[in-house]
Amino acid sequence: MELRNPARRSPAECSWEDIFQHQERLMRLVRRRLPNSADAEDCVQETMMRAAAHTTLDRQRLGPFLTSVAMRLCIDFYRDQDRRKRLLQRAAVVDEPETPEEGVCDEDFGRWLLQQAQLLRGREQQVILARADGISTAEFARIHKISVKAAEGAFTRGRARLRMACAKALEGATG
């Protein structure tokens, strides 16, 4: 993106002063649409920065351009907020154990499951342990220079083997 050079500006192009004249109008516009003044101010500043970075914007189009960008940023704000809300709804909520015994059992099961993961072979073990450390399958694929599909396949196979080990252990404990 080319930065503005005031010496090379044509008379029809906008200056920062031209853009700044719209600040109060933009604040009124977005303040009615966003939940608080800090978000509104961020939106207006982003709008003005985008206009300042736009090298071919002329004065005739400045007002409508700023309005359009500000409105789209307001829409983006709510889309992002909605996306975060959906993510939180899908995210697994880890509750604190209700009793000390449950906490001890959960920790013991975690240790046992980690031992089972150590028994997996090759790529399955690597990807399961990486996921346990918080590394995504895509990041694992990048680190190990394999395709994401291969990493996801190894993760799926490893997870299936761990499920089978859990089922066998439960079957042996109850049978």
UniProtKB/TrEMBL annotation:
The keyword Transcription applies. Keywords: Sigma factor, Transcription, Transcription regulation. GO terms for biological process: DNA-templated transcription initiation. It holds the Pfam family Sigma70_r2. Signal peptide: none annotated. The keyword Transcription regulation applies. Gene3D superfamilies: 1.10.1740.10, Winged helix-like DNA-binding domain superfamily/Winged helix DNA-binding domain. Residues 21-84 form the RNA polymerase sigma-70 region domain. GO terms for molecular function: sigma factor activity. InterPro entries: RNA_pol_sigma-70-like (IPR039425), RNA_pol_sigma-70_dom (IPR014284), RNA_pol_sigma70_r2 (IPR007627), RNA_pol_sigma_r2 (IPR013325), RNA_pol_sigma_r3/r4-like (IPR013324), WH-like_DNA-bd_sf (IPR036388). SUPFAM superfamilies: Sigma2 domain of RNA polymerase sigma factors (SSF88946), Sigma3 and sigma4 domains of RNA polymerase sigma factors (SSF88659). Belongs to the sigma-70 factor family. ECF subfamily. This is RNA polymerase ECF sigma factor.
